[in-house]
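Need residues for this backbone.
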């Protein structure tokens, strides 16, 4: 199921223009946007046949789309008939963002002190790639993956493996919520280049402060879109 869902989400044809998308991709993106916008409240049942009729497509396309939603943690599959929208716990998500902020401010502090010039060059290139993907406003899964890798690489260069290990599962959950199609197109995120510039100062306090502002911005946008 994960492999199939990733095929939908990762396809280069999932551009914001809508051109070249498969039926399953179009249904997936539209349902995802509607769920994150609150149009389908928690516990809402998404039944395959009515959805297929609504979207004017076959059961298989809708089934693939719903499986992709399940892979992102937005719905829970219920047999062959469809799925149920998973309730979101606002306090839990906010708490996970705060935990992420604590970890990443520390990784930024240490990275600013310890990373060598080669590592700084790697981070500069990664930051530029993430910002470019956001500006292009499509290939949502590639945006998420690049964002996650940038933050995990900072943690790696901090020299404390346990911090990276603690951060990875938080990023998997929170970055997916952070990057809806609506956000990518209409609400640009905090520039990752700014995070790199903070690290480049080699001042741990500045690096930590820039990272905190970056993540606070991300948290505020995510919670506003989700709730």
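Answer:
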């Amino acid at each position: 199921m994960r492999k199939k869902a990733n095929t939908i989400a990762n396809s280069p044809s999932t551009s914001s223009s809508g051109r070249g998308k498969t039926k399953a991709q179009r249904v997936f993106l539209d349902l995802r946007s509607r769920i994150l916008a609150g149009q389908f409240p928690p516990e809402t049942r998404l039944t395959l046949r009515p959805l297929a009729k609504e979207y004017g497509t076959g059961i298989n396309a809708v089934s693939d789309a719903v499986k992709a939603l399940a892979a992102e943690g937005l719905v829970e599959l219920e047999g062959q008939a469809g799925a149920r929208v998973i309730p979101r716990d606002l306090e839990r998500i906010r708490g996970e963002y705060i935990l992420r902020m604590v970890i990443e401010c520390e990784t930024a502090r240490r990275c600013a002190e310890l990373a060598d010039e080669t590592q700084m060059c790697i981070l500069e290139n990664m930051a530029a790639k993430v910002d470019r993907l956001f500006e292009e406003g499509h290939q949502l899964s590639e945006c998420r993956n690049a964002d996650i890798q940038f933050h995990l690489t900072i943690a790696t260069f901090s020299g404390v493996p346990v911090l990276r290990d603690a951060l990875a599962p938080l990023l998997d959950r929170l970055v997916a919520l952070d990057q809806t199609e609506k956000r990518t197109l209409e609400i640009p995120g905090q520039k990752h280049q700014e995070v790199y510039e903070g690290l480049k100062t080699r001042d741990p306090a500045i690096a930590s402060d820039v990272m905190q502002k970056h993540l606070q911005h991300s948290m505020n946008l995510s919670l506003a879109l989700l709730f």
